[in-house]
Amino acid sequence: MLKKTLLFSSKCSITTRDNQLVINSEIASKTIPIEDIGFVVIDNAEVYMSITAYNHLIENNSAVIICNKSHLPNGMFLNLNSHHIQQELFKSQIIASAPLKKQLWQQTVKEKIKNQGLLLEKVTKKKNNFEFLRSKVLSGDTTNMEAVAANFYWKSFFEINFKRERFGNYPNNFLNYGYAILRAATARALSGSGLLNTLGIHHKSKYNAFALADDIMEPFRPLVDEAVYTIMQHYDEQELNTEIKSVLLQVLTRTVYFKEEKSPLMVGLQKTASSLQQCFTGKRKKIKYPSLWN
Known about the structure:
Blueprint: E1 4-8, E2 12-17, E3 20-25, E4 29-33, E5 37-42, E6 47-49, H1 51-59, E7 63-67, E8 73-77, H2 86-94, H3 98-124, H4 130-135, H5 145-157, H6 172-192, H7 211-216, H8 221-234, H9 242-249, E9 255-257, E10 262-264, H10 265-280
Parallel strand pairs: 1-5, 2-6, 5-7
Antiparallel strand pairs: 2-3, 3-4, 7-8, 9-10
């Protein structure tokens, strides 16, 4: 079942009753079954949520995302006990060999470059050499083809003069919001598969609690890029507003394609996370990444 994503951008109180989320605002009151909720995004300092509501959501493996005063996702609550053999899976992840992690990172970078190349062709209507760049990715991406591809990609992607920066000018703010939501969705899927988000296969900063999510989300980033590109074609607004956030949140329900089936992104991420878990336990050799376009 496709889970709902809820965005709270105005003052309200959120409590629970009979396994329902009870939402009271100055305008209306409504209830939503907690089992139907995948993500809750809180983007207003005057939203009150009871501890009981937090606990019920987390027990349902729902991700609760808190935004800062700049309206960008700033923190997240996740279930820490979401898999029945979690300790065993943590151990497999901790003892994973360097060659295995390098191979998994190679696969991940190749998928990212492939997806960037496909989207760039869609946007520019021109052929590019991303398949060649993809073929040059070595184990562990030791020659950093990811950066080579990214440099060309961002120079060509937008019609405006653009530099991709975390705190840069528009449309960096749109990209940052979309990536933060994607990161949260990836972290939720990995946690649900019993994996420890802190232990990445490539990202290693001691300050990063979501290194594995940062690794695995890489091939999915072009979905956010595509959404931002589309927004720029239809909106003159350069600041994040509720409508644009809602459009970016729809990335979570965007269809992705596996060989045998298609599914919404939030379900596809669960399939990818499950395959990564199997790589760590020796049952698979490749991460199951979907095609982003049919």
